[in-house]
Amino acid sequence: FFKYQENPEWHGKKVLVTAGPTIEPVDPVRYFTNRSSGKMGYAIAEEAAARGAEVTLISGPVMLDVPHGVHRVDVNNAKEMWEAVNARFEETDMVIKAAAVADYRPSEIVQEKVKKHQDNWHIEMEKTHDILKSLGEKKQQQILVGFAAESEKTEEYGKNKLRDKNLDAIAVNNITQAGHGFDGDTNEVMLYFRNGREEKIPLQTKAMVATALLDALTNFFLRQGS
Ligand code: CTP
Ligand code: CA
């Protein structure tokens, strides 16, 4: 019984997957983060490795085991994720960016624990580095696949990100619909490709979504004739 099939197209390809949230500290005991279990990214990493790719998984803090055959690099915040991704980008064939990167971090990290003396606490936040956008600006042979979690105008916002970040494909999910994304084990995404092709991956387990996604992406490797 073969659960997975090695694809010749994926064999030996260097695939970088990011997964999970980032956490942005404000003092030694508190941080800002966002909702991401990491399950989607981990499922993609596992599936790519099963197809024969050389997979590096850059992971924010999550409660998941390292998938079989995958090399995991642990990071905490957006800056560390950027450094880990950027250091490996040149030699990478494909980046799949499933991570939920924090968009803002506290402008200053307070060195000592902040005591609750005041009734209100105003925290100034600054934007983090947009990792995917930077990759889109400097990419050469690399295939870039983004994710987008939207609560409205999913097609419009998704296609905007595809264009603005210079991606080859983007997987968009609508977080307001039941069973889509975040903590659960299921997901449904719309795939938009650079060439205008669209493909719906219907609601199913994240492992099955990963399989469908990689099937769809196989065409990119086929087209390169490698
Ligand atoms: N992303 C990234 N670096 C960031 C923020 C996002 O690399 N600092 C990546 C995500 O990993 C994802 C894609 O960009 O693959 C889209 O993320 P999303 O949060 O949907 O979009 P943003 O560009 O951050 O815009 P907004 O949150 O305002 O919708
Ligand atoms: Ca964001």
Automatic annotation (TrEMBL):
The record's free-text note on cofactor binding: Binds 1 FMN per subunit.
GO biological process, one term: coenzyme A biosynthetic process
Pathway(s) served: Cofactor biosynthesis; coenzyme A biosynthesis; CoA from (R)-pantothenate: step 2/5; Cofactor biosynthesis; coenzyme A biosynthesis; CoA from (R)-pantothenate: step 3/5
Protein name, as recorded: Coenzyme A biosynthesis bifunctional protein CoaBC
Recorded family membership: In the N-terminal section; belongs to the HFCD (homo-oligomeric flavin containing Cys decarboxylase) superfamily. In the C-terminal section; belongs to the PPC synthetase family.
Residue segments, region Phosphopantothenate--cysteine ligase: 15-226
Cofactor: Mg(2+); FMN
EC number(s) per entry: 4.1.1.36, 6.3.2.5
